[in-house]
Amino acid sequence: MGFIIAIAKRFDALVGPGVMLLYPLYASFRAIESPTMLDDQQWLTYWIIYSLITIFELSVWRVLAWLPFWPYLKLLFCMWLVLPMFSGAAYIYSNFVRQYVKIGMNVGGGTNYTDEQRRVLQMMSLDARKSVQDYVDRFGWDSVEKAIKAAEKETRKH
Fold first, then answer.
1. Which cysteines are cross-linked by disulfides?
2. For residue 122, what are the CA distances in angstroms to 49, 87, 106?
3. How many other C-beta atoms lie within 10 A of the C-beta of residue 58?
4. Which one of 4, 109, 115, 136 is at 20 to 30 Å from 57 when CA atoms are compared?
5. pLDDT digits (tens, 9 = 90+) for 108-124
6. Would you say residue 104 has pLDDT above 50?
7. Do 118 and 101 contact (CB within 8 A), yes or no?
8. Residue 123: C-alpha distances to residues 15, 49, 67, 126, 157 (Å)
9. Model's pTM, two decimal places?
10. What is the pLDDT of residue 103?
11. % of the chain at pLDDT higher than 90
């Protein structure tokens, strides 16, 4: 019985590193290799929030030492951020961060792209983005849309 109580008292220390570091590290590696940017947003946002929590803890550790529930609160919050069924970091990104950060703000320089066009450009690698931007500057966005439609039409044939 004493063993179970000891585990319950240190549950945060046993589970915390796996939830707060190991799984996010693994998922971040997978996100880097995936073609979509949605998981990149999830994990970049997670690491930013986790860093802010760590800075907060380091700044006020003397106060937090007096709060016995702090490690459990932190664990629950990080579980909410990490677990795929909640995707809390993605929620924070889409509902709070995105309001203050313009999507594709570094895309297109002074060119007036629509939000949809910026999203398309943002999903590309830097080299591809530069090539498409040069093409758009020379021929206009309509020619890019025509090329995309032609490629989609060609894909349907096969």
1. none
2. 22, 22, 9
3. 9
4. 4
5. 444 567 777 777 776 76
6. no
7. no
8. 35, 23, 43, 9, 26
9. 0.57
10. 47
11. 13
Helix 38-59 × helix 23-33 angle, to 10°: 150
How far is Cα 113 from Cα 121, in angstroms, rounded to an integer?
10
Q: Across residues 67-94, what is the average pLDDT? A: 86
Give one DSSP letter per residue of the chain, joined into a string: -HHHHHHHHTHHHHHHHIIIIIHHHHHHHHHHHSS-SHHHHHHHHHHHHHHHHHHHHHHSHHHHTT-TTHHHHHHHHHHHHH-TTT-HHHHHIIIIIHHHS-TTTTSSTTS---HHHHHHHHTS-HHHHHHHHHHHHHH-HHHHHHHHHHHHHHHHH-
Tokens of 38: 């949605």
> Encoding tokens for residue 156?
């349907």
pLDDT tier for residue 107 given thresholds of 50, 70 and 90: very low
Q: How many CB atoms lie within 10 A of CB 78?
A: 23
Q: Which of 53, 56, 39 is nearest to 93 (CA)?
A: 39
